């Protein structure tokens, strides 16, 4: 008998067992990869379905189904999809379960690229307003915006601009998102997308992929598959994030306006070292922004939490007496940290602590002088004074307090965050108010938005209900503070 005849059955047996073991190992590895996260997250997909996406939409849908629904999301995650063109629509908002992935897939595959215009600002408004219907849970949030074009809002949109640029209203409303600490990724398809500009505006990351399909031609099955693979590769770090941990702090400023910012950054999900490049750090002082640092580079190790110190230099004339300062980071592309707009505590000047016993009398005198100057500047001694207001919202226990100077206006306006009241416009103006003595007088040309018709004359103590863009009424009452 040949030796091979003796060992062939044994080798065959071993091969079968080996193949079976390897197969089981691969299946277990895949299962572990899908479920390696034990903390639930919220994922928001904002998807461009304008006509220009017709060649790419099949690849995008396959990418979302294969990578997000099947591989990324785990039971308990919240998945929300906004589809947009000239208008924006909520496609789905569901918690992922073990038995609803098929229905999520069907919803995604129903999307057609058939709309005119590309109003990204309106899509973000719709996302913000939709989220108000759901409880905000203490967990990470990720937004993926996919588009092949630039901002091209219809003329009737508040975000319309003739040249397709992001107008002032868009830039102001984007700051609301920058404060919320979401990981934002812009996926641009084709060379004509505004992915980079959008990422800079929203303080997010971005990638761009080329389609390889000639304009106006239907993509082949191979081209669809290739683009789907590109989309997958370009978002491999979608859930990777660098976030601020704890409360940032700033040391006491010197007389020359010099200090340093100390913040702790936590890296999660990245496999490699990341470099965060900050073009400018802005400090908000007394309603104005001052440059505090430029061209900052921070090296962040994977799966780490480290403290960083950034030297600051601010115009000494800015007035650095605040105990906290709002800081906005403008990034220079690549990896970013969240939130991009945050508040830092400011230490009291050192000499105040050391010499406080000797300066008490002098400080009291200065305070009295400053108070006198303030009262004179506010017109207290010239007949002008402020009307102190308390705003009570029907749907919230929180109260808002505003001091309305005699010659200034108060605005009721509607922006990304809904209807609000303030000394500055946050969106479309619904009504204006001004003080006349002890009365608060309202003016509006939008009577149809007020339940029962707009109020006239003095509105102090009179409840009013105002309809928002979604047809819901928001109730509020102005009360004079004693």
UniProtKB/TrEMBL annotation:
Per its UniProt entry, which superkingdom is the organism in?
Bacteria
InterPro entries, per this entry?
A: VWF_A, vWFA_dom_sf
Instruction: Supply the Pfam families for this chain.
Output: VWA_2 (PF13519)
Please tell me whether the keyword Metal-binding is annotated for this protein.
Answer: no
* Keywords in alphabetical order: Membrane, Transmembrane, Transmembrane helix
Gene3D superfamilies tied to this protein: von Willebrand factor, type A domain (3.40.50.410)
- Domain called VWFA: residue spans: 42-231
What sections of the protein cross the membrane? 355-376
Provide the protein name.
VWFA domain-containing protein
